[in-house]
Amino acid sequence: MTSSLPKALALAGVALAAALIAPRLVRLPFTATSARIRPAHTSPAVVATHGPRPTAMAVSGQPVRFAASATPVRTVGAGAWMTLATYAVVPGATDIGVTGGGFAPGESVDLHLEGAGARVTASLRADASGRVAGTAHLWLAPDTTLVRLQAVGRQSGSSATATIHVVPFTAVISLVPYVARPGQSVEVQGQGFDPDEVVYLMVGPAAIGRSRADGDGRFDLRTAYTVPYAAGPGFLSLAVVGGPDQPAAAQRLYVVPLRPWATASSYVVHRGDRVRFELHGFAAGEYVDVYAGRAHLGRSATPTDLDGHVATVGPFVVPAGDRFPTYTFIGARSGARLRVTLTELSR
Q1: For the sheet containing 249-255, what is the strand order?
Q2: Which CATH code is given to the segment(s) 81-166?
């Protein structure tokens, strides 16, 4: 009993000493930066990796160092997108604005058209943020109804698709002018025809001219039709016919009636006076013959303008012996007639 008491006291002392010394011997201050763990699966991308940050740990007063990787992962090319300035076009040559994003920085982006008779030309390159902007030059065949435009990054393989609806042609024509007098030429303009197709200008059942539409389905006939000098007043139909499957595009031209009139330098004259006339309302581009009774006095020095106007005709000497000298003006092409009577005073 007496021998065991000293042993117990010794063990208690050892335990007390260990309890007092242990905090001094073992220190575990642990600090670590937050780390982003690289996922096991990532889409094709550019991965940006920075150097590991050192994290310290002290055990029993001795510092121990290890590396904890802090690796931010950035993926590009996944989820590429594209928008167009318009999603409805007509056949032929068309330019469309293209914008997009989600591609690899600085990579070239190729454009492809899915659809028969469709071509595209473009040069797009992504900027530092993977965005693109530019213009796509399309050519679409007349029978195309729907195409898909696809943008594909050369390095990343990322792609985006947009659907474009092709609106059928609607052929229309316009006239310049819509009101004309006999002898006046009319310009015919058209659009909405098939690219490069031959079009025919029709007046009634007769084809009077032909042209060819350009790559955009447009044409312009400068002197397409000249109103005949014998045409009566009223409406006249002009039509343009393209391919066999297209309806004719038509417009109505109004032919004005010829109602000539004139002004004289004097309406009261004496024998031997000289008189001049200014003529209006004849057909366009015609000369005017002048008669006194049945005698032909001459012809206008210049033809009428587009309004049927001649500034000066004459001078003519007033004959003797006719109290009311009468002058007759006849359009050389239209046959339009005008009579002007003067009053002659005796001296």
Answers
A1: 179-180, 249-255, 234-241, 198-203, 206-212
A2: 2.60.40.10
